[in-house]
Amino acid sequence: MSRKKLIAANWKMYKTPAEAKAFVDAFLPLVASHTRDEIALFPSPVLLPTVVAACKGSNVAVGCQNIHFAEEGAYTGETSIGQLKAIGGTHTLIGHSERRQYFAETDEIVNKKLHTALKHGIVPVVCIGEVLAEREAGKTAEVLKTQVTEAFAGITAEMAAPIVIAYEPVWAIGTGKTATPEMAVDAHKIIRAEVARLLGSDVAAKMRILYGGSVKPDNATALLGQEDIDGALVGGASLKPDSFTSIVKY
Ligand code: PGA
């Protein structure tokens, strides 16, 4: 079973258009011949037109950090899937822990957004992960299974091929504390087993499960070298072309 890894940059609320353009101009030549893995950038919505234009014709895909589940409507401050598609974005993050924590995103909302993304042919990267208290209480498996089950409500095996999952233990995001490769692999096995229970073992065997949470150039090889880890979602270490390139080329 070979799953092409996806190495993705989550820029969060960083960079101006000029800074984003400078990143892409420096980054593309560094990864131009890299075919082993897929690469994607997830900038803020206001940067998307600049980044999409700068990445046009390259091996780097561009997506949104969040979309609304509604196709359009009176949702001040939100971005629609049609808007993302119209400017040439191809991917979206869904349910990042910062969205769950600060913007009250629930598994139910994640599920609605997943349906919207799939309906419109946008590659969804569904983020899940336990908080520290859940890990310490021995509830990691239970939390991950619930998040997967609720995110996937109404999703059939036929619909599931584009879906990517990002396992991001919340206690590892932006903290410099990384899950060990063993912890990440254990979590990925739990997630893949849950996908198999819901959608069958074929779908589960093909689904990419990324790891995210303080991935850096110096731990990328240990994490991405694991067969069960199908890529990375990188925050802080994706903001500089050199550092993100080292992770892409782990
Ligand atoms: P981090 O962020 O790499 O800065 O921990 C990862 C993420 O939030 O996706």
Number of helices: 11
Mean pLDDT over all positions: 97
Distance between the termini: 20 Å
* Secondary-structure-derived class: alpha/beta
DSSP strand content: 15-25%
User: Tell me, what is the CATH class?
Assistant: Alpha Beta
CATH superfamily: Aldolase class I
Low-confidence stretches: none
List of distinct ligands in this structure: 2-phosphoglycolic acid
Please give the number of β-strands. 8
**Gross morphology:** globular
Q: Whole-number radius of gyration?
A: 17 Å
Give the strand order of the largest sheet, numbering strands 1, 2, ... along the chain: 1-2-3-4-5-6-7-8
If classified by CATH, what would the architecture be?
Alpha-Beta Barrel
Order of helices and strands: EHEHEHEHHEHHEHHEHEH
Largest sheet composition:
8 strands, parallel, barrel
Number of domains: 1
Query: Which percent range fits the helix content?
Result: 40-55%
Keywords:
binds 2-phosphoglycolic acid; eight-stranded parallel beta barrel; alpha/beta; 250 residues; TIM Barrel; single chain
